[in-house]
Amino acid sequence: MATVTAELADEYLNLVDGQWVGARNDEWIPVESPRDRRTIARVPRGGEKDIADAVNAAGRAFPGWRDTAPRARGRLLQQIADALEPHVERIARIISVENGNALRTQSRGEVNFAIDVFRYFGSVAGEIKGETIPLNATVLDYSRREPLGVVGAITPWNAPVQLAVMKIASALAAGNTLVLKAAEDAPLAVLEIAKIADEFLPRGVLNVIVGYGTEAGEALITHPDVRKLSFTGSTAVGSRVMAAASDRILPVSLELGGKNPQIVYPDANEDWVAQGTITGMRFVRQGQSCTAGSRLFVHKSILDSFVDKVTTNLAKLKVGDPLDEDSDIGAIVNKKQFDRVCGYIDDGLQRSNTTAAVGGRPPTEGPLSEGYYVEPTVIVGVENDWRIAQEEIFGPVMCVIPWEDEDDVIRMANDTHYGLSAFIWTHDIGRALRAAHSIEAGWVQVNQGGGQVLGQSYGGYKRSGIGREFSLEGMIESFTQRKHVSIDTNR
Ligand code: NAD
């Protein structure tokens, strides 16, 4: 295994009111690396008191930050982007060590994307505009987009830096202050980013607490002074966040899970399509992506030959140590998730008539048995109403479901509680557009399988969430409230 040259500290602290502090109860959470199951650092086990300190600090910082000129706020965000540039490699290595994502295929790109996010929201901070309404000759009516106040943000571990920075940059650009509860499984790179951001921001504008969801997370979503909840994570916890918000009529943004369909038409039995479905499945992120196209609907007439193409291309991807430049695919984030994924694979393969076209149960000896590694797995012969086709596995497991009739495949694609993303593969643009318009998902891609793009109002239908944060419009909708001022100019 490659040595960890990342500059990891033994101990990381929370950021509260511009100070780096341990948890008030002096308790800690060990952070284990999924690449070799070694403990790599410890972080504070933040709880109610830490959240209260952070929310109070954010509340004190709010008036000053709100009244800072938007373009001046934007300039600070851009300075943070510039300051992050020299740290890409170091922070990318930390992500790979803490959450198992491969350095070459994932983590470097994630940090570069985060820099772009600071630049994007920094550059549009001055675009938060209101309107005037032509009521009559003497009344001037105009609207303002005002920030909400203290935002409580909660993020998961799968793309920890990208998802945290999305919330930090957009909420702050709009003039809010923020308390971020980072994911306990992968908090280190986020704290490294906060360290750099904190050098530019006034104290209390950005606060970061690490802790468990049931402790720090609950304290944040129920704190009376938080004015907005912005959550990315599972649908089950998203539902709890929404319930807590309803007690105080708080606005919420929820970016939740997915069980996304990929539909392969008979005219698309080609190698580039097979490669595209592998990208869409996010196999190089171990399938740990909300947009993973994990239900592969393949037309019956091309089933065997298309699955062959998928497995041939998958065999070219190497599973290995996330820090190794040769690895395309890294490790599953933790034991809980590893056991869960293995449970789903067992469940799928125990059914009669299913086969693993590739992958299957994880290795029990050799270097890959030292961490939480699972080979990419393609299960053929699945039916759409089975558990493995309905529940979000959040692992490298793709279910292949045959189809014959176009109406039927659209019905199956929509037969899920989720509605985040979808992928359609065909040369027939008419068919592609018919399918794209019929599918219940916030983002449909045709003949491409890439990840989210900045500036696009990305988000979910159905239980995949509400709200959009990835764009200027999303930032305005998610992090400001509209106020009208009406003036009788005759008096
Ligand atoms: P999770 O819901 O278990 O945890 C997410 C965060 O919520 C963590 O920080 C956790 O500590 C916190 N949390 C847990 N219980 C809480 C509670 N009761 N109150 C407040 N906070 C609580 O999700 P996860 O396993 O970390 O992440 C994977 C999930 O995230 C998947 O479902 C995935 O699809 C989803 N996700 C969605 C998007 C999107 O943009 N739609 C992006 C990434 C991940």
TrEMBL record:
Domain named Aldehyde dehydrogenase: residues: 20-485
Pfam families: Aldedh (PF00171)
Entry keyword Transit peptide: no
SUPFAM superfamilies per UniProt: ALDH-like
Keyword Oxidoreductase: yes
Gene3D superfamilies associated with the record: Aldehyde Dehydrogenase, Chain A, domain 1 (3.40.605.10), Aldehyde Dehydrogenase, Chain A, domain 2 (3.40.309.10)
Active site: 255
InterPro entries: Ald_DH/histidinol_DH (IPR016161), Ald_DH_C (IPR016163), Ald_DH_CS_CYS (IPR016160), Ald_DH_CS_GLU (IPR029510), Ald_DH_N (IPR016162), Aldehyde_DH_dom (IPR015590)
Protein origin, superkingdom: Bacteria
Keywords for this protein: Oxidoreductase, Plasmid
Family (UniProt): Belongs to the aldehyde dehydrogenase family.
Protein name, UniProt field: Aldehyde dehydrogenase family protein
Species: Rhodococcus pseudokoreensis
